[in-house]
Write a structure and sequence with these properties.
Its EC number is 3.1.3.16. By secondary structure, this protein is of the alpha+beta class. It is built from four helices and eight strands.
């Protein structure tokens, strides 16, 4: 049985989740490709880094799904910089949650200041940091981490993250507090009247 609790970050929305697990092994990782995806450029990247800072109990796993004209460059940039930030953070073992949030914020800032034109491009990120017998799950965007949990003779899927999308009331509110507007495509194209999404 897993226990988990949401830890708040500086933006007052879920970015990282702490999950305590009983077993220390991770097995049977799978990926899936939808047949229609073969016709489009794959802008995804992933990262598996074991024994961070030489510690046999600290590992990182991430999937980055780029989008837009420069989605590949965005996903590769975030994959590279995020793990570099975590690996070099001296507070990683003392305060993994703080190091994780700092790495995400710094990587985001570096991407904005890079040569990559991310005005119409970007990447989502779903990541897991394993420190001993604790999982830290952080996400940006609409990809999800799921764990299989045994319940009697059944295996159930339990979400470890929550999609960060503007249709969630709390996320819509956070985006608006930053000065942005939330619109659906028909509203942007003038086909539908603007209303308050997320209410």
């Amino acid at each position: 049985m897993c226990s988990w609790k949401v830890l708040p970050d500086i933006y007052h929305h879920q970015m990282a989740t702490r999950v305590t697990i009983e077993k220390r092994s991770i097995a049977n990782a799978n990926t899936f490709l939808h047949k229609d995806a073969v016709e489009r450029e794959n802008q995804d990247s992933f990262c598996i880094k074991t024994q961070i800072q030489g510690n046999p109990n600290v590992h990182f796993f991430g999937v980055f799904d780029g989008h837009g004209p420069y989605g590949t460059q965005c996903s590769n940039f975030v994959e590279d910089r995020l793990i570099e930030m975590l690996s070099s953070d001296s507070t990683l073992l003392d305060d993994p949650f703080k190091a994780y949030n700092s790495a995400f914020l710094a990587t985001n800032s570096e991407l904005h200041n890079s040569e990559i034109d991310e005005t119409m491009s970007g990447t989502i990120a779903i990541t897991v940091l394993v420190v001993g017998d604790t999982l830290y799950v952080a996400n940006v965007g609409d990809s999800r981490a799921v764990v299989a949990v045994k319940d009697g003779d059944q295996i159930l899927a339990e979400d470890l993250s929550e999609d960060q999308i503007p249709f969630r009331k709390d996320e819509c509110g956070r985006v608006k507090l930053c000065g942005a507007r939330v619109l659906i495509v028909d509203q942007v194209e003038g086909l539908k009247e603007c209303s308050n999404l997320g209410r």
